[in-house]
From TrEMBL:
<keyword id="KW-0479">Metal-binding</keyword>
<dbReference type="GO" id="GO:0016788">
    <property type="term" value="F:hydrolase activity, acting on ester bonds"/>
</dbReference>
<dbReference type="InterPro" id="IPR015021">
    <property type="entry name" value="C11orf54_DUF1907"/>
</dbReference>
<dbReference type="GO" id="GO:0005634">
    <property type="term" value="C:nucleus"/>
</dbReference>
<keyword id="KW-0539">Nucleus</keyword>
<keyword id="KW-0378">Hydrolase</keyword>
<keyword id="KW-0862">Zinc</keyword>
<dbReference type="Pfam" id="PF08925">
    <property type="entry name" value="DUF1907"/>
</dbReference>
<feature type="domain" description="DUF1907">
    <location>
        <begin position="19"/>
        <end position="321"/>
    </location>
</feature>
<protein>
    <recommendedName>
        <fullName>DUF1907 domain-containing protein</fullName>
    </recommendedName>
</protein>
<dbReference type="GO" id="GO:0008270">
    <property type="term" value="F:zinc ion binding"/>
</dbReference>
<comment type="subunit">
    <text>Monomer.</text>
</comment>
Length: 326
């Protein structure tokens, strides 16, 4: 697979905090952003596979939507641990979180994926190797979100360490460290949580200084809209006629109440024209009630005032991996 590497030059966390807070205050009744020591994200309600999101922060955009539309590319199969190698993360310790398509090659059908995996050397192993899983102690908290034939969703763990078609991954050494702590409640504007942040960054830094962020946020209160991909259409129903058919007739849509954990990757700009997916967030239920999916936006109602809490970090490197032909 072709791997292209692009360095980023993010501002300081303090500068980013000021910009993000200013943007959120136009869209929410209350918002605050600070630079704090990251809590242990393995603990409830977040349930990540690593304690933090610091150390060698990077983002990879793998494959892409052309691998799904107009016809699925069944050759687009990926290993998360091989992707960690492509992202130059050490086998001596690291983690990946984000959003992508589930490994149809393992589970036998299409679904959503919320990658959430960490690793370290097994025992006292001196030469851990991503190509030899026996040398690694892998913690896999990844979720697969799918719908049955009646379009009822479910969300469960998986033993697979693979993905397919497309993925947007935030990688790091998984260490504790300083992060952006973002809080917001009571949406009054038109933008969802992630788009409000990235549009504020774009307005401040423009195309000349793209900012890419990854991490986790919690929908603490309220409810939000999600989609879940069903299984692939039958051969007779392919190719997809157009994107409207894919979005309006094929995808399934659901509204779920908080608390929901969301793994997110987003960019303020794409000046190198890498065909980046500008925002991608996949979510799972913090209380194990088997709900989740691809985040669209919260639903602000009198009885469901929304509230968010996020822990984010800027990436210092972007990897474009296996970019499909447009």
């Amino acid at each position: 697979m072709k791997v292209s590497i692009y360095p980023r030059d993010p501002p300081s966390l303090l500068d980013l905090a000021e910009v993000i807070q200013r943007s959120l205050q136009f869209n929410f009744t209350e918002a605050s952003v600070g630079v704090e020591q990251c809590p242990d994200l393995r603990e409830e309600p977040f349930g990540l596979a690593a304690p933090g999101i610091s150390g060698n922060p990077c983002i990879a955009d793998i494959g892409g939507q052309p691998n799904l539309f107009p016809t699925p590319n069944f050759n687009a199969q990926y290993s998360l641990l091989e992707l960690a190698t492509d992202m130059q993360i050490s086998p001596f310790g690291g983690s990946l979180i984000g959003a992508g398509a589930a490994p149809f090659q393992d589970i036998g059908h299409n679904a959503e994926l919320a990658p959430n995996i960490s690793w370290k050397p097994a025992g006292n192993h001196q030469k851990p190797d991503f190509s030899d899983h026996s040398t690694l102690e892998i913690r896999n908290n990844t979720r697969i979100i799918e719908v049955n034939d009646e379009k009822l969703p479910s969300c469960d763990g998986t033993s697979s360490t693979n993905c397919a078609l497309m993925a947007n991954i935030y990688g790091s050494n998984g260490q504790p460290g300083l992060v952006l702590k973002v809080k917001a409640r009571g949406r009054i504007g038109d933008q969802n949580f992630t788009n409000c942040i990235r549009h504020g960054l774009r307005d401040t830094y423009g195309d000349s200084r793209p900012i890419s962020l990854g991490g986790v946020f919690l929908l603490k209160k309220g409810k939000a809209k999600f989609h879940v991909m069903p299984d692939f259409p039958s051969k007779k129903d392919l190719p997809f006629r157009d994107r409207e058919q894919l979005e309006k007739e094929w995808l399934t849509y659901h509204v779920f109440k908080a608390p929901i954990v969301c793994l997110t990757v987003f960019h303020s700009a794409d000046p190198e024209l890498l065909d980046l997916r500008m925002e991608h967030t996949h979510c799972f239920d913090a209380e194990g009630d088997k709900k989740g999916g691809h985040y669209h936006y919260d639903i602000q109602e009198d009885d469901f005032e929304v509230e968010y809490e996020a822990y984010l970090h800027p990436a210092s490197t972007i990897y474009r991996i296996d970019r499909p032909a447009s």
